[in-house]
Amino acid sequence: MEALDYHAEERRKAEFDVEEMKIVWAGSRQAYEISDRVARLVASDPVFRKDNRTMLSRKDLFKDTLRKAAHAWKRIIELRLSEEEASKLRFFVDQPVFTDLHWGMFIPAIKGQGNEEQQQKWLPMAYKMQIIGCYAQTELGHGSNVQGLETTATFDPETDEFVIHSPTLTSSKWWPGGLGKVSTHALIYARLITDGQDHGVHGFIVQLRSLDDHLPLPGITVGDIGMKFGSGAYNSMDNGVLRFDHVRILRDQMLMGVSQVTREGKFMQSDVPRQLVYGTMVYVRQKIVADASCALSRAVCIATRYSVVRRQFGSHNGGPETQVIDYKTQQSRLFPLLASAYAFRFVGEWLKWLYTDVTQRLQASDFSTLPEVHACTAGLKSVTTSATADAIEECRKLCGGHGYLSSSGLPELFAVYVPACTYEGDNVVLLLQVARFLMKTVSQLGSGKKPVGTIAYMGRSEHLLQCRCEVERAEDWLKPNVILEAFEARAARMSVTCAKNLNNFANQEEGFAQLATDLAEAAVAHVQLIIVSKFIEKLQQDIPGKGVKRQLEILFNVYALSLLHKHLGDFVASGCITPKQGALANEQLRLLYSQVHFDNPSLLLYMVLLLERLLQSTSF
Ligand SMILES: CCCCCCC/C=C/C(=O)SCCNC(=O)CCNC(=O)[C@H](O)C(C)(C)COP(=O)(O)OP(=O)(O)OC[C@H]1O[C@@H](n2cnc3c(N)ncnc32)[C@H](O)[C@@H]1OP(=O)(O)O
Ligand SMILES: Cc1cc2nc3c(=O)[nH]c(=O)nc-3n(C[C@H](O)[C@H](O)[C@H](O)COP(=O)(O)OP(=O)(O)OC[C@H]3O[C@@H](n4cnc5c(N)ncnc54)[C@H](O)[C@@H]3O)c2cc1C
């Protein structure tokens, strides 16, 4: 049989409503239709071809990227695409490009941190791409530690200007995407200084290049930082370096939504938390979580197609060899990744809701949910990107030697994806932010302040710290409430243990530094609980379509039990389940793998083929 016949054969056996499953994946019928239409548009346009990009030199790759960006813009205008359609189109073009930062960070930063006048001045030009912006925060010396940035913005009351300066080599801006070659403007983060006083880091809009001949303006030194990991991959992006030599900008180029500097040079802090200066990062982290399921599903799709077609060993009497998908080891490596793609999809949807909710609250001066939103975006960004990066590499191995070929699509997917573990906040640094939030929550437990939202379970910590899991048979592990309680108990116990251990240190900061590994693990436990609980909430919704809900329930159980198996040490050590119950969970997991594949083999293929148009460059 040919590869295509194998796929067709598997698909014919579908026992659930495939069209409805596609809608579940997309989030709504309308989102599915947009996605489907735009995917076809991109796939049928020769300018957007991607089969040759790993073979291009950096220069040609960059030209190809510019050509695609210009063509994408032309099509967006010609077809009068909505914002949602335009962003889908850029997503399907699927090549890191300066417009990611222009639309994804520069514009959101002005919207989030600029006052109304500033938005009216800058946004129309940015929307029409008359100016192109990047987000220049990171410096050579400091990326994670934003408060350590060294670039200065000193107010000069005589001229009503700020003087932007790079006082040291380490203060050079380093990494911003779109900066190296393309951007005309940058949103830079610099220490605000008025009358000799340092007010910390704030955002400023600075023009870098002439709008006439694109040459750098006086006092600006700018360039590309060079080749990055892999061939093709992120090298389509012009990550850049930038230095300022006493560059003057108008006072109103400081984003004044959070703080202001008056004509007299007086610094005024609005009645809002200073952390709103970090708002764009929160926005992008939320988007990164939503995108994790896309990268993961692509890798899983490739590995599944390969596993169905590939045969090794087991031929009897000259008959066909065994499909590698039939090996338990292949299943136990692949199916949890498929389940994770759906889990990340649903938690990404929820996070988008949470972000919209906090945005509305902020507009009404309600800052109460900001710490939770920061913890959720930081934690979910960390856990989903780390898991996705590892999963792409696992999928490469699942495809044997063929996975190492560029034509499998996996090496490039990996090279483009892995920096997501670093950019927008190093994943460990972000977990420690979550841990800080958790420790604060635990310390307030006795104060009468009731934990709400994703930390509501901490309010039941008295029960969670002593409850015993009631699983006696493997099938007991199929009950969502049993799974949820085990995850809650593990998360609560790990956090409370860390909090107790912190109390052994006279100095909290020192304790936090010494216990950082345990704290990061407690943060992972908390974030995995969020993902599990949001999957359960999804299953409680009305999900139409024959058999769709049933298949999602199987995937939920695979996701939760495979996590439990992987982190069995945590669950057992914190005493919330016994080793025997852990073994029963594993037994149930094995049975579930058989259901994913043998009861309904087509489930597997359908669920992973939803994004197959993205895979133009793959040959499996
Ligand atoms: C779709 C677009 C395409 C994607 C392309 C990607 C291109 C990549 C772009 C980038 O990488 S841009 C640069 C991104 N840089 C980072 O992410 C830097 C990471 N570092 C930080 O975010 C911060 O420095 C830090 C680690 C959070 C620490 O900040 P700071 O020192 O100021 O805070 P702490 O003292 O630790 O905490 C003080 C207080 O503030 C709270 N907090 C911190 N961050 C936020 C936030 N974003 N929102 C709300 N609140 C925040 C923190 O929890 C503390 O609270 P309390 O404990 O005091 O209550
Ligand atoms: C592809 C790519 C694109 C990027 N695009 C942009 C952009 O457009 N604009 C922009 O401004 N920036 C951008 N960045 C920069 C990015 O945001 C930073 O690289 C990131 O925030 C990490 O900072 P760092 O490089 O200083 O890492 P470091 O902080 O130096 O991290 C190095 C190691 O130290 C560890 N570490 C650091 N602090 C702690 C701590 N407190 N506790 C425990 N461990 C710690 C980390 O876990 C890591 O293992 C980009 C980076 C990449 C790779």
UniProtKB/TrEMBL annotation:
Superkingdom of origin: Eukaryota
Acyl-CoA oxidase C-terminal domain location: 480-596
GO cellular component: peroxisome
TM regions (residue ranges): none
Cofactor(s) the protein requires to work: FAD
Domain Acyl-coenzyme A oxidase N-terminal: 17-132
Cell compartment(s), UniProt: Peroxisome
Ribonucleoprotein found in the keyword field: no
Keyword Flavoprotein annotated: yes
Residue numbers binding FAD: 138, 177
PANTHER family attached to this UniProt entry: ELECTRON TRANSPORT OXIDOREDUCTASE, PEROXISOMAL ACYL-COENZYME A OXIDASE 1
Family from the record: Belongs to the acyl-CoA oxidase family.
Identification of the protein by name: Acyl-coenzyme A oxidase
Provenance organism: Gossypium raimondii (Peruvian cotton)
